[in-house]
Structure formats: structure tokens, C-alpha cells
Write a structure and sequence with these properties.
It comes from Nocardioides aromaticivorans. By secondary structure, this protein is α/β, with parallel strands linked by helices. About 50% of the residues lie in helices and about 10% in strands.
Length: about 675
């Protein structure tokens, strides 16, 4: 039997030259700079055409590894970069002036860009700093508004964060002209519950706030403002409803062209072009029957590649097993190969836009554009994106939208294959060894990072660091662009925590609205929720008061969607809910449990730090005389870790396969009854 390809698959001559494929990335970074560097170089050798760096939560939120808030979080969801020495290791043997590097960093974006530039300067000692900067190409995500709404790695109040963004944009347009200084990021809005209309509208409102900030700062001339608009890029989500998602991208293109032309007077069509990268939907991947995630990823990739006029500039795909834990290099390779097959084996890139003239597509795009315009007008009437963050409006709308979708899944109105329908399954060889199906973060990463910071501080010129940080503080108190002082601090050897600490002192910190209080949950209670409500009422009567549930997010994990939905459904079920938002220490959670005299503590952790943070809460409750209060845990928790948590005394563990929130509420009631000796 011949192993040669079928002759029918031989391509005919294309009607025009084949388009260049998009930049292919995998989102990567873990444990240590050395380990991440090895992974980057391996992926580049496999044909990856750009780097996409994931930083750990301490780096993202401006803490060094030796901060108490960093406990259990170092190297978990990305690579720790607490100082310039680690940035050097991260890009060792990778020529930065030849790379296109995307860095998923927001609150500390200015600092990470400065260290990246200084590392590139050190690689090119024969060039001046300005000459090096002009050669750099890439993107910093740097969209802080969506952090207040969905992802939670904000640090400073909105107006100060917007100033940092404006300063970075003004600096890059002059000094790093090939750099995209901000990625307006609607990706996490979809994961937080945004409909396509909300995703478009809130992203555009963010872009308007950023461009207005730059224009009003006076740091960029009218002639250069078109360049600013031309360097704004977007980072979007693509869900599995790929026709709607493709139409969403065409709507984005149309609306951005209109806003930049009419609101900002941009005449150059190239500068008005909607330029975006995409990560397809990670939180839509399922723990149950995870092999189904492969076809989900393919459909989501098609949504952002099929339409030439709305095709992504860069694509990064998650791995099939991300709902189980940290993907291995082989899993990331599989995702890269999905892109390469589409780009190089199919004929997609040989044709003009295949959807032009489609009445179905045109009608859907028109519907999305008109809906988004109405929502943009609503937000602008409130005073814009910053005002809508402060008031809690956008957050509340997202929490409500997410609650409606969760209710539809539970009711079977929205089908998730393998989860709420077609859930019988054969044994999968991919998950026969669950612990082997994911990569475990290096348990020594935190020790290595602590040692690195200690050694770094011992060899630097402390007086030079102190002077650089003093300059940063002074500039922060004025209208001076902070990029120069930040570069000076990086060159002097300051740390991530020191840079952010200075600005915390000047700007203060911020806690965003949770959106839970005003969110609309289940409109009508069905039989299941009614039964749980009765159980909550009956148990409260037997104990002697309304049942109180504390929902806590320990550590630096800011992905609060699950915690918010648990809080909303618990409230609908009749619990009194105490939810104080993200980034709490175990000690703060214990203090709240004592102060509120709660009947159950629920912890939500998606960053992989559950084995460090949960025991700290359990120990704290015992020390406070509340060791009999049951603790439940939810998150992306491998099966072996779940068993270990139960052995430590956790009453129940919930993972993404446990999608029934009302069922979880019933489980919480049973846990409380058991803890109180009730039948």
C-alpha cells in the first residue's frame, strides 16, 4: 500500500500569491527563567514564529518572591522575573532585536518593558540604547481596565494606572516604534461572562479611555497621534460558536475603523487597521472528556483565521489538557501543529475573503455593531470606562451575564458535550495516567527565586538603587513621564517589588468592586434550587440562625469568575454570603471567618497554589478555635492533590467538571449538617 499522498490532494496553482501566515505563538513560562528559556528555544526550533511570555503572579502584581503574599505562587502560572538578572536568563541565547515578543503583563508592564529593553542593550553593547530600542518588536498587554473587570492583577487605582499606560505609549511611539505598547484585551471579558456585544463594547470603551489619556497628556504631537493609533493592538477571545465569533471579528474591524476615523480624525487607512492577536478560549475547555477540547480549539482557531479581512495577526492556542493542569511541552507542540496544518497544508491562505457578500454574515455583523454602539454610548454617558469601573456597572453586567450562561448550562439549554450531554465515555488513553498527563511546577522554584533575589541584592550598588528609586518617587509625584526613571531603576538593579512598592507609596492601592451585590442570578427557582433553599432554611433553623458562607480567594490568583458565581448562587440559595474579593492572605480569610462566625469556608484557587494556601487556612482556623468549621475548595486541582486535601481535613473538593452550582450548594448544606452533628 502506497504511503504517498493522494494525488487529489495536490494543490492547483493559486489565483494569487499565498498570504503570509499569522505569527504562531504558544503562551509559556513556568518555574524558573532557565527552564522557561529552554522551552522557548525548543519551541522556536519547532517552527514557532514568536514568543509569548507568561509571568507568575508575584511578578504580575508587583511583589518579590520574599513577600508574604507570594507564598505558594512563585513560578506557578508563569515565570518569576524579580530583577534584571532573571530577565537576562529568560532570554539567554535569544537575540531580542530579532524577536517578536508578546508579554502578558499589565500593572507592572512599564517595569517589565524596561528590563526587556535593558537586557537587549546588554546583548548589543556596540549599539546605543536608542538604537537598540528602535530594533525591538513585540507587545505588552498593558490593559489594566480589564484587570479590574475580570483577571485581577491590578495594583494601583484606575487613574494612576491609566497614567502609566499613557507614559508607556508616549515613550514607545518615539523610542520603540515597532512595539505595540498596549493590547486592548477583551479575552478575559468573555471568560468573565461577556456576550459578543459586551466584549466589543467594553474593549472599545477601554481603547477610547487610553487614546483620550494620551491625547490629553500633551506628550504626543498631533502629527504623531496617528502613529499612536496605528500601534494600538487588541487581544481577543474566540469561543466555540465560531460563526458568531467570526462575525464578531468583522464587527470589531468595522467599528474600530469608524471610531478612529470619526472620533480621532485618523486619515491613514493603515493606521486605522484593526490589528489583533488571539488566544482561543481556555476556560471553555473541559475537564470531563478532555479529548473533546482538541476539536473545540480547532473550531475556535477557524473563527479568527477564515475571514481574511478580519484575520488575526498572531494566534496562540491552549493545550487540550489545560483544564487538568499545566500542559507539557508535547501538549504545546500539538497546539502549534494545529496551526501549522491549517496554514501550510490547507488552501485557506490562497483566497480573498470567503464571506464577502454573505447576507447571513452581513446581518449578524450589523446586529453586533449596533448592539455594541448602544452599549458604548451607555458607558460613555457615565463618564467613560474608568467611571464605569468605579461605579461597578461593567463588573456587575459581566457577573450577571455569566450567571445567565451558567444557569443555561445547568438547565441543559446550552449543551457542553461530555459535560451536560453525551457524558458516557470510553476510557481515554490520554488520561489513563492523570498525574502523567500534566506537568508539575518545579517545587524548588520558590527556593530558587528566593535565593536569586538574595544574591542579586548582595552584589548590587545599594546607593545607586536608592537614588534611582528616590527619582522614581519624585517623578511619580509630578507629571513627568515615568519611563526614564523606570529604565534608570532597572539599570541600577532595583527589583520588581521595589519598583511597585515605590509607586504603591505614591499612588496608593485599589480594590475593585466585586459585582456580586447587584448581580442578577437565577430569575426563577426550579425544583432543584427550591429544594436546596428549603434545606438551607431548615438547617439554619436547627443550628439557630441563617447559614453563613465565606467565599475566599487566598493568594494572588485574580481569576474570580468561579468565586463570584458561587457567591451569587449561594445568595440565591438562601445563604448569607461573605465575599471580600481577591488577593487575601490566609490570615485575612481566617480573621473574616472568625469575625462573621461563619458555618463554612469556601476557597477558590486556580493558580495551582492550593497545596500551600489551603493548609495555611486550615491551620489558622484551628489556631483560632474554629477547627470544626468545614472548609471546601474549588479550582483546577489534579486528582492526586484533591485526595491529599481531603486527607488534610478539607470537607469537599470541586473541580471544573462539577458544573452544577445548585448541586454544589446542596453539597455545602450537607457538609454543614455533618459538621454540626445533624442527620
Amino acid at each position: 500500500m502506497s504511503s504517498m499522498p493522494d494525488a487529489s490532494a495536490t494543490p492547483e496553482k493559486a489565483s494569487h500569491p499565498k498570504d503570509r501566515p499569522w505569527v504562531m505563538r504558544t503562551y509559556a513560562g513556568h518555574s524558573t527563567a532557565e527552564a522557561s528559556n529552554a522551552l522557548y528555544r525548543t519551541n522556536l526550533a519547532k517552527g514557532q514564529t514568536g514568543l509569548s511570555v507568561a509571568f507568575d503572579l508575584p511578578t504580575q502584581t508587583g511583589y518579590d518572591p520574599d513577600s508574604p503574599l507570594s507564598r505558594g505562587e512563585v513560578g506557578k502560572v508563569g515565570v518569576p522575573v524579580p530583577h534584571l538578572g532573571e530577565m537576562r536568563k529568560l532570554f539567554d541565547q535569544i537575540p531580542l532585536t530579532e524577536m517578536n515578543t508578546s508579554m502578558t503583563i499589565n500593572a507592572t508592564a512599564m517595569w517589565l518593558l524596561a528590563m526587556y529593553q535593558v537586557a537587549a542593550e546588554e546583548q548589543n553593547p556596540d549599539l546605543s540604547p536608542s538604537e537598540v530600542a528602535h530594533k525591538l518588536a513585540g507587545t505588552t498587554q498593558n490593559d489594566i481596565i480589564k484587570e479590574y473587570l475580570s483577571r485581577g492583577t491590578y495594583v494601583f487605582p484606575p487613574e494612576h494606572s491609566l497614567r502609566l499606560i499613557g507614559d508607556m505609549i508616549a515613550y514607545t511611539v518615539h523610542e520603540i516604534p515597532k512595539w505595540n505598547p498596549i493590547n486592548i484585551c477583551s479575552y478575559h471579558l468573555q471568560e468573565a461572562g461577556a456576550t459578543p456585544v459586551q466584549e466589543i463594547a467594553y474593549a472599545m470603551c477601554t481603547a477610547i479611555a487610553v487614546l483620550d489619556q494620551v491625547k490629553n497628556s500633551g506628550q504626543v504631537s498631533d502629527d504623531d497621534f496617528e502613529k499612536v493609533v496605528g500601534r494600538i493592538s487588541f487581544f481577543v477571545n474566540a469561543g466555540v460558536r465560531f460563526v458568531e465569533e467570526m462575525c464578531k471579528m468583522r464587527a470589531f474591524v468595522e467599528l474600530w475603523d469608524e471610531i478612529t476615523r470619526e472620533r480621532y480624525g485618523v486619515q491613514d487607512e493603515k493606521m486605522r487597521r484593526f490589528r489583533y492577536g488571539v488566544q482561543v478560549n481556555s476556560l471553555g475547555l473541559t475537564e470531563a472528556q478532555p479529548e473533546n477540547n482538541v476539536q473545540r480549539i480547532v473550531l475556535e482557531m477557524l473563527a479568527v483565521t477564515l475571514s481574511k479581512k478580519a484575520r488575526a495577526r498572531a494566534v496562540q492556542l491552549p493545550a487540550w489538557n489545560e483544564a487538568l493542569g499545566l500542559p507539557r511541552p508535547w501538549d504545546q507542540q500539538w497546539s502549534l501543529r494545529l496551526q501549522q496544518v491549517l496554514a501550510f497544508e490547507s488552501d485557506l491562505l490562497e483566497y480573498e475573503d470567503i464571506f464577502d457578500g454573505s447576507p447571513v454574515v452581513e446581518a449578524k455583523v450589523r446586529e453586533l455593531v449596533e448592539g455594541a454602539k448602544a452599549e458604548i454610548d451607555r458607558v460613555q454617558a457615565m463618564g467613560g470606562a474608568i467611571a464605569a469601573v468605579d461605579s461597578g456597572y461593567m463588573k456587575q453586567e459581566l457577573v450577571s451575564s455569566h450567571a445567565r450562561r451558567r444557569a443555561a448550562i445547568e438547565a441543559g439549554e446550552e449543551i457542553i458535550v461530555g459535560v451536560n450531554k453525551f457524558d458516557t465515555t470510553e476510557q481515554s488513553p490520554l488520561t489513563a495516567d492523570l498525574d502523567g498527563a500534566i506537568m508539575v511546577a518545579d517545587p524548588e522554584a520558590e527556593k530558587a527565586a528566593l535565593a536569586s533575589v538574595e544574591a542579586w541584592k548582595a552584589q548590587r550598588d545599594q546607593a545607586e538603587v536608592d537614588a534611582a528609586l528616590a527619582r522614581l518617587a519624585e517623578d511619580a509625584k509630578t507629571g513627568t513621564n515615568l519611563m526614564a526613571a523606570t529604565l534608570a531603576a532597572a539599570r541600577a538593579g532595583a527589583t520588581t517589588g521595589e519598583w511597585a512598592g515605590v509607586l504603591r507609596e505614591v499612588f496608593g492601592e485599589f480594590r475593585a468592586p466585586t459585582g456580586v451585590a447587584g448581580a442578577v442570578g437565577v430569575a426563577e427557582a426550579g425544583a432543584e434550587l427550591t429544594a436546596v433553599r428549603e434545606a438551607v432554611q431548615r438547617t439554619g433553623d436547627e443550628i439557630g440562625g441563617r447559614l453563613r458562607l465565606l467565599v475566599g480567594k487566598p493568594g494572588l490568583d485574580g481569576h474570580s469568575n468561579g468565586a463570584e458565581q458561587v457567591a451569587v448562587r449561594a445568595r440565591d440559595a438562601g445563604f448569607e454570603v461573605i465575599y471580600q474579593g481577591i488577593r487575601l492572605t490566609p490570615e485575612q480569610i481566617v480573621a473574616a471567618a472568625v469575625a462573621e462566625d461563619v458555618h463554612c469556608v469556601g476557597l477558590s484557587i486556580l493558580s495551582g497554589s492550593h497545596m500551600e494556601l489551603v493548609p495555611a487556612v486550615l491551620d489558622g482556623l484551628k489556631a483560632a478555635g474554629m477547627g470544626d468549621v468545614p472548609v471546601i475548595v474549588g479550582g483546577i486541582i489534579p486528582e492526586s492533590d484533591g485526595k491529599a486535601l481531603l486527607e488534610l481535613g478539607v470537607a469537599a473538593v470541586y473541580t471544573p467538571k462539577d458544573f452544577g452550582l445548585t448541586e454544589i450548594m446542596g453539597g455545602i448544606v450537607e457538609v454543614i449538617r455533618k459538621a454540626n452533628g445533624l442527620a
